[in-house]
Each structure stands twice: as C-alpha cells, then as structure tokens.
C-alpha cells in the first residue's frame, strides 16, 4: 500500500494569503510606478512626458501581471507566498486570473507534478501467475500493449524497469505522471500518483474515485480487468490469454 503524503495532493490556499498576495502585487506595482515618476521629476522632464511615462509603466506592469497569472498562475505576491493561481475545475492556470489558488509549499505544484513513491505489500498471499497480455484501449479507439510495471500519463518519464504509456489529452485533465500499474502474484495493482484530474473506476452503479493514497488490486483473469476514467479520458484494460507458442 502506498503511504499517504500531502505533498502529492493539491492544497488550497487560505483566503488571507490570497488577499495578502494581491496586496503585495499592488504594493510592488505602486512602488515601481512611483520610482519611475520620481526619476522623471528628478530629471526635470516635461510634465506631459512624465505622465506618459508613468502611464506606460503602469500598462506594462498590468499586462505582465495578467500574462503571469493566466499562463503560469503566478505573480510577485504569489511567488513570495508560495501560491499558484488555478482554475477551480481544471486545476491549472486559466484564461482569467480568478481568486482560487493552491499552496505549492505544502502541497503539489500543478505545473510540476511529482511521482508518488509506491510501497508494495509483500505480505499479501501469493497467487499463481496468469499467462495473459494486457491491452489498454482508450476512448478514441486506440489500443496499446501494457508491459508491467507501467506508468500512464500525458508525458510520463520514469527510469527502467518501468514502462511508459503516453496519452494525448488536450484538456490537460491527465497529469504528466498520472497512474501506476504493476502485477504481482496474479494481481493487477493500480495506484493514482497524485494526479490533478483524478482516477476513478467506472462501474454500472457509477464512478468510484481512487484516492491517491490507496492501491487497488484486481485478479488478473482473462477478460475485462478494469474500466477507468483518467481525468476526462476513459481507459479499458483487458487481459488476453496467451496461447502456447505465441510468446
């Protein structure tokens, strides 16, 4: 079973810290505009030129703040307080600045997700190995062979002996390193690696979320092993029995 660790989950920032960040942003901008204005006055520049210069600096600072918040979810205040502005639904910086943020010092940074360490339970009862090939089928009709152990994500990068399955996801609800799978003693084990969009097991009765601090083990018998929802994408894992002489 994987150990619970809050650093691999998003931690919402407190309201007071978001307000403090906005105050810092305003103070930094006001300080820079004031410094430029005083410099222009010290240089005895014409009044019209001084006002034009101050307005240009103000527009440049406002534009830079907007770009930083919408593209990277940061700003001077957020950077100093360790915050990342994110959309409450997508969990990533959005098209509008917004007032929702996560604490990247206490929890996971949505733009830099980290693989969560997995500790296997070696005391589980041993089962005879099953000679099957695992096939992952996505909702767009594409299929892939799964070699264990495997990490699935938008752009997973792990060292051997782990294998990677990169899943295209323009909605960015699948994390770069989203889900880990491994087989042991006739069981297929799944563990969410602290993903933003989450992992759920799809059943006829509805979706059952897979918490990031839990491992689910399924008997590896021929047929459908799992129907999963990764963010907004769906993934089926089927086990196909290997005939003698086919491997």
Topology:
Layout: H1 15-42, H2 47-72, H3 76-81, E1 83-85, E2 101-103, E3 132-138, E4 143-146, E5 150-153, E6 163-166, E7 179-184, E8 187-192, E9 199-203, E10 206-209, E11 216-219, E12 223-230, E13 233-241
Question: What does this protein look like?
Answer:
It is a single chain. By secondary structure, the protein is α+β, with helices and mostly antiparallel strands. Helices cover 24% and strands 27% of the residues. It has helices at 15-42, 47-72, 76-81; strands spanning 83-85, 101-103, 132-138, 143-146, 150-153, 163-166, 179-184, 187-192, 199-203, 206-209, 216-219, 223-230, 233-241. The strands form 3 sheets. The protein has a 6-stranded antiparallel sheet, with no helix packed on it. Strand 9 (199-203) and strand 10 form a beta hairpin. The longest helix is centred in the N-terminal third of the chain and has 28 residues, at 15-42. The radius of gyration is 25 Å and the shape is elongated. The model has no long low-confidence stretch (mean pLDDT 84).
């Amino acid at each position: 079973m994987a150990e619970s660790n809050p650093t691999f989950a998003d931690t919402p920032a407190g309201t007071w810290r978001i307000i403090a960040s906005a105050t810092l942003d305003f103070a930094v901008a006001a300080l820079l505009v004031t410094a430029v204005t005083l410099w222009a006055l010290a240089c005895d520049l014409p009044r019209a030129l001084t006002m034009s210069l101050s307005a240009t600096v103000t527009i440049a600072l406002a534009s830079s703040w907007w770009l930083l918040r919408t593209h990277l979810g940061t700003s001077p205040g957020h950077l100093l307080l360790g915050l990342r502005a994110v959309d409450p639904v997508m969990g990533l910086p959005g098209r509008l600045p917004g007032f929702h943020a996560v604490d990247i010092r206490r929890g996971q940074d949505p733009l830099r997700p980290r693989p969560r360490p997995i500790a296997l339970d070696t005391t589980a009862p041993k089962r005879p190995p099953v000679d099957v090939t695992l096939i992952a089928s996505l909702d767009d009709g594409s299929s892939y062979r799964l070699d264990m152990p495997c990490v699935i994500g938008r752009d997973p990068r792990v060292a051997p002996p782990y294998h990677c399955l990169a899943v295209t996801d323009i909605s960015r609800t699948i994390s770069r390193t989203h889900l880990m799978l491994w087989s042991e003693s006739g069981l297929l084990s799944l563990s969410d690696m602290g993903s933003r969009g989450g992992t759920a097991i799809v059943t006829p009765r509805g979706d059952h979320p897979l918490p990031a601090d839990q491992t689910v083990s399924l008997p590896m018998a021929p047929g459908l092993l799992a129907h999963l929802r990764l963010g907004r994408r769906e993934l089926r894992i089927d086990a196909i029995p290997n005939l003698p002489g086919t491997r």
